Amino acid sequence: NAGVMQNPRHLVRRRGQEARLRCSPMKGHSHVYWYRQLPEEGLKFMVYLQKENIIDESGMPKERFSAEFPKEGPSILRIQQVVRGDSAAYFCASSPLRSPGETQYFGPGTRLLVL
Amino acid sequence: KNEVEQSPQNLTAQEGEFITINCSYSVGISALHWLQQHPGGGIVSLFMLSSGKKKHGRLIATINIQEKHSSLHITASHPRDSAVYICAVSLYNTDKLIFGTGTRLQVFP
C-alpha cells in the first residue's frame, strides 16, 4: 500500500505564473487535507476536501488559491499568479474516515520556490 | 497567544539522555497528535491520543485532558532521533489540525 504521494517534490515558478500541486491519497482514503509551511514557521491548515466536495476551506487565502479533489485522479492545489510570499512547503495528508481526530498520513511535501 | 504551545523550542541532548517535550493547548479538542519532521523530509505521525498514555518503542506520549497538556518522552535518545517534533490538535467536532511551532531536537553522540 503506497503512502501519500505528492508531485512535484520541488517546483520553481516565476512571479505571475501558475503552480499546480498534486496529491494522491493512500489507497482507500477519501479525505484529503492541504497544509502550508512557510519558511521558519509552523504548519497551517489550508483546506479539507472529500471526493468532489470542499468541506472546509477556512485556511485558504481568499484570492489566487483553489483546490479540488475530483472523482477520478489526484487532489490539486492551484495557485494562480504566484508571488514570492507563496514560497513554502505544501503538504497534503489523507485519512480513511471522517471522524474528528482520525490519524492523518502525510505526503513528502512539495517545495515551491517563487523567483 | 497560539492555541497550541510547545516547549522548549530547541533542545540539545547527549546520546542516551531522557528527553521530554511539552505541549499545552487552550481549545477543546477531539485528539492530540505528535508528529516528527526530519530536515528536508516529510512528516511522520507518531501518536494520536485522546486520553491516557501510548508507547511505541522508545517513545512515550501522555495526555492530561483536564490540564490540557501533553508530553512526548524519548528514552535512551539516539542521534537518529534528531528532528523537529510537532504537537497538533484536532479541534473538537472539526477535522483540521492546529499545529504547535515545533521543538527542534538535536542528539549528539
Describe this structure in words.
The complex is a heterodimer of chains A (115) and B (109). Helix content of chain A is 0%, strand content 49%. By secondary structure, chain A is mostly beta strands. Chain A contains no helices and eleven strands. The mean pLDDT of chain A is 92. Chain A starts with a strand and ends with a strand. In chain A, strand 5 and strand 6 (53-56) form a beta hairpin. Chain B is an all-beta fold and 109 residues long. In chain B, 0% of the residues lie in helices and 61% in strands. In chain B, strands 2, 4, 5, 9, 10 and 11 form a six-stranded mixed β-sheet that branches. A five-stranded antiparallel β-sheet of chain B has the order 1-3-8-7-6, with no helix packed on it. In chain B, a hairpin with a 4-residue loop joins strand 7 (59-64) and strand 8. At the A-B interface, strand 4, strand 5 and strand 10 of A face strand 4, strand 5, strand 9 and strand 10 of B.
List its traits.
heterodimer, A: 115 residues, mainly beta, 7-stranded mixed β-sheet, B: 109 residues, 6-stranded mixed β-sheet, 5-stranded antiparallel β-sheet
SSE topology:
The complex is a heterodimer of chains A (115) and B (109).
Chain A: E1 5-7, E2 10-13, E3 19-24, E4 31-37, E5 43-50, E6 53-56, E7 65-68, E8 75-79, E9 88-95, E10 105-106, E11 110-114
Parallel strand pairs in A: 2-11
Antiparallel strand pairs in A: 1-3, 3-8, 4-5, 4-9, 5-6, 7-8, 9-10, 9-11
Chain B: E1 4-7, E2 10-14, E3 19-25, E4 29-37, E5 43-49, E6 52-56, E7 59-64, E8 69-74, E9 83-91, E10 97-99, E11 103-108
Parallel strand pairs in B: 2-11
Antiparallel strand pairs in B: 1-3, 3-8, 4-5, 4-9, 6-7, 7-8, 9-10, 9-11
Brief overview:
Chain A is an all-beta fold.
